[in-house]
Amino acid sequence: MKVLVVGGGGREHALVWKISQSPMVDRIFCAPGNAGIAQMAECVDIKPEEIHKLADFAEQMQIDLTVVGPEAPLTMGIADEFDKRGLKIFGPNKLAAEIEGSKIFAKSLMKKYNIPTAEYETFTDLNEALSFLEKITPPVVVKADGLAAGKGVIVAVDKQTAVDGVKKIMGEKVFGKAGDRIVIEEYLEGREVSILAFTDGKTVLPMVSAQDHKRVFDNDKGPNTGGMGAFSPSPIYSEELASIVEKEILHKAVEAMGREGRAYKGVLYAGLMITSQGPKVLEFNCRFGDPETQVVLPRMENDLVEVMLAVSENRLNEIKLSWSDKKAVCVIMASGGYPGKYEKGKVINGLSDAETIDDVIVFHAGSRKEDGQVLTNGGRVLGVTGLGKTLEEAADKAYEGVNKIKFDNVHYRKDIGRNLSPRPSIRL
Ligand code: AMP
Ligand code: GLY
Question: 327-411: what fold?
């Protein structure tokens, strides 16, 4: 089989790494890929948003299966284009991907089908949103309706922060059209867990739990990032909780999407807050999480391609997922300054020393090769995953790998997978 993976970050490296282990696969392409991915796939210079070019490439190369990493091409309808051309693709179509593409759509779906989530109001008018804020007591959460690269959510402890957030999103349009409409919702307290599930629209197979660390500094301080690390499983995700989430959230959501004429196929990602009243949905994503994928896939014992083919051929009921007991921790090595301004093009040393440690996998997130050297090429540069019998051992392994790798101005958190106490009230 020939497989094409769309995307070029750490998640896509993990996908390519796992797909390369399938005995069914003899050639892997990745568009656009990165220096790490290039070790196991042929990188193709096409951007994820260039969906027609990608479909042309898949046709020319007779790709048997295309796997989409990021949300943007999915919300733009890449799966519809591939379906139209009779090309097999793993990922939801445009109507289904709206579960991530529009927070208002996702919230109204949850309300209509009684899926637990924070109370909320939606606004299309700046002044109405501002006068609503006058009537409520913070903390409150302000969310741009559309895609904003993970930056469209403002958790406001005080009224002024909420007002500023609404003005930025709806007035200054810092996220463009994504901010034409907003959601203002109840602040939920608890611990976050990410649950990713395979679904063909009928059968739902949840993967093992994970949690990411969004804040840039240790002890969850500083601004949000795309994710500074992740671990799996979440120690608070009990079997009882898992069965509630499966029944009350994942199955309900997939069934709801079917009833709405938006049959959902691919990976459904539920970002959950485990509150004292039970799990509530913070967000749905229409794809694998990043960096959750870098801790979930290394624990998966199935052939990923077999599972993806079963999804695309509507026979996921034939699959049983199996997981390693090993725990996983992924530490992101970022460029100094990220998520603000940072420099690119720093030489990365020590990669092969890290890669040769047992139970350590180095996933590249933003790297490129030049004159035989690997250079930094993004905010998040590498994700070093460690595996071990306990989360502690897995974290030790990950940091053993991290310590071998050097580049100028590197920044990483020292507490990934380590301080797993319940989330204190609010830290901003
Ligand atoms: P989202 O993109 O909707 O997952 O939001 C990004 C982050 O903002 C989440 O991972 C949470 O840490 C936080 N967040 C979002 N919604 C809420 C909420 N209702 N209550 C508390 N925190 C939230
Ligand atoms: N880790 C958060 C996300 O993938 O959206």
Answer: Glycinamide Ribonucleotide Synthetase; Chain A, domain 4 (3.90.600)
Round to whole Å and give the CA distance between 90 and 101.
17
Q: Whose CA is nearest to atom 11 of ligand 1?
A: 282
Largest Cα separation within the chain, whole Å, is 61
pTM assigned to the model:
0.95
How far does the centroid of ligand 2 lie from the alpha carbon of residue 60, in Å? 32
Summarised one tens digit per residue, pLDDT across range 25-64 is 999 999 999 999 999 999 999 999 999 999 999 999 999 9
- Looking at residue 224, its pLDDT comes to 84
Q: Which CATH number fits domain 119-186: 3.40.50.300, 3.30.1490.20, 3.40.50.720, 3.30.750.24?
A: 3.30.1490.20
Confidence at residue 348, expressed as pLDDT on a 0 to 100 scale: 98
Pocket test for ligand 2, best of 292, 295, 380 (most atoms within 8 A of CB): 292
Q: Which two tokens stand for residue 300?
A: 């998966």
Say if CB 210 and CB 296 are below 8 A apart.
yes
Separation between Cα atoms, residue 241 and residue 258, nearest integer Å: 25
Q: Is 100 in the pocket of ligand 2 (CB under 6 A)?
A: no
**Cα-to-centroid distance, 37 and ligand 2 (Å):** 20
Q: What's the CA-to-centroid distance between 326 and ligand 2, angstroms?
A: 22
Residues of the chain with pLDDT under 50: 424-428
Q: Name the residue with tokens 């039970």.
A: 278
